[in-house]
Amino acid sequence: MKLRIFITLYIICMPVCLLAQRRQLQEARAIIKSGKNYDQAEEMMTKLLEDSANLYNPRIYDMWLLSVEKQYDQVNEKMYKKQEVDTTEFFNLTRRLFTIGERLDSLDMRPDKKGRVNPSYRSDNAHRLTSYRPNLYFGGAYHLRRDSLQMAYDFFEMYLDCDRQPLFTGYDFWKNDPRMATVAYWATYTGYRMGDPVLTLRYAKEACRDTAKLEYTLQYIAQSWKMLKDENSYVATLKEGVAQFPKSPYFFPRLMDHYMEKGNYEKGLSYAESALQTDSLNELFLLAKSTMLLNLGRYAECLQTSERLIQLNHQMSEAYYNAGTACLNIALNMDSRGQKKQIRKMYQKAQPFMESYRQQMPDAKDKWGPSLYRIYFNLNLGRQFEEIDKILKK
């Protein structure tokens, strides 16, 4: 009996609900024809969608899309006339257009009772929205300039995501839209600015297509892998960076730092020597070779490489340090009884190197202080020795 009453009430209420829904749609259509108060039409549609019974009615979404599109056109016309507008709201309208359009498309593609799919809205909506799509990019740039990073990322991502959306089937944006790689770069950059390695890497592969910004993109990728503690990917990205941009001050030094931290001096040396085969005068490569040779205890080779580097660049402070340290270690490994003259010559050779390093790096007392102490002591240079002794005691 109760079930029969419920069914009867449902049958009675259903036409009433449909009638109310039809009335709301008619009122919204009348508002749009009036040429004003488009926001009221949108509000009517969103209220209709608060009722779960209306969630799958494509006509409501179509009217909602039209009401937002009219608001967009209204603001766009004001901008064209150079009238004052709310720029943030203009770009928010752009986003809503795509959100609504994509929802409508998913309903439009639902099969009928016989399993047939016959979209009614897709072709027209895709064509219209494509003309508005550049403003997703401009909206992202606008928010990026304002440091609204999450909002900027959302706009860039929506622009890129159009390629994946069924609504735009056949448009093949990656093939036909030359701006895609640029937007992917800005999404990657924004993710990097946010300190979020996952967001940074999401479109990084696509961002690499923008060759003009590739050096920066690879830096963001490398830093993201480092944050995620993916050592293999981090090193692979640094190597790619070295191959693409051998003179960049970012990739090669960090790759060498990685090998230094791991104590893998042989591998570091091998990589530096391979790099020098492509550019024998590259100062970064020569410095890396010098440093690896020093850590491997190959002091004579280190001294030779460091001297060559100093000839190329008199301002390369670490080359002076490596050369001086190599001389000190060569002296230390000599026979203190049978090679006194040779030992003294090595200390004399080390002196100008380490003094030059001190001059260029006055704050690096922990490096040049002990070295000059040994040099002045062994060369019996009393005045200089006393000065260094005082510095070290402080």
What do you see in this structure?
With 394 residues, the chain is mainly α. It has 21 helices and no strands. The chain has helices at residues 2-34, 38-48, 58-80, 87-108, 122-132, 134-145, 149-161, 173-176, 180-193, 197-202, 204-207, 214-227, 231-244, 251-262, 265-278, 283-295, 299-312, 317-332, 340-360, 365-378, 382-393. The longest helix is centred in the N-terminal third of the chain and has 33 residues, at 2-34. The protein is elongated and about 110 Å long. It starts with a helix and ends with a helix.
Q: In brief, what are we looking at here?
A:
The protein is mostly helical. It has helices spanning 2-34, 38-48, 58-80, 87-108, 122-132, 134-145, 149-161, 173-176, 180-193, 197-202, 204-207, 214-227, 231-244, 251-262, 265-278, 283-295, 299-312, 317-332, 340-360, 365-378, 382-393.
Structural class: mainly alpha
| Distance between the amino and carboxyl termini | 99 Å
Instruction: Return residue spans where pLDDT drops below 50 for at least 5 consecutive residues.
Output: 5-14
Largest sheet, in brief, is: none
What would the average pLDDT be, to the nearest integer?
A: 92
Helix content: over 70%
User: How much of the residues is beta strand, in percent?
Assistant: under 5%
- Count the strands? 0
List the helices and strands and how they pair.
Elements: H1 2-34, H2 38-48, H3 58-80, H4 87-108, H5 122-132, H6 134-145, H7 149-161, H8 173-176, H9 180-193, H10 197-202, H11 204-207, H12 214-227, H13 231-244, H14 251-262, H15 265-278, H16 283-295, H17 299-312, H18 317-332, H19 340-360, H20 365-378, H21 382-393
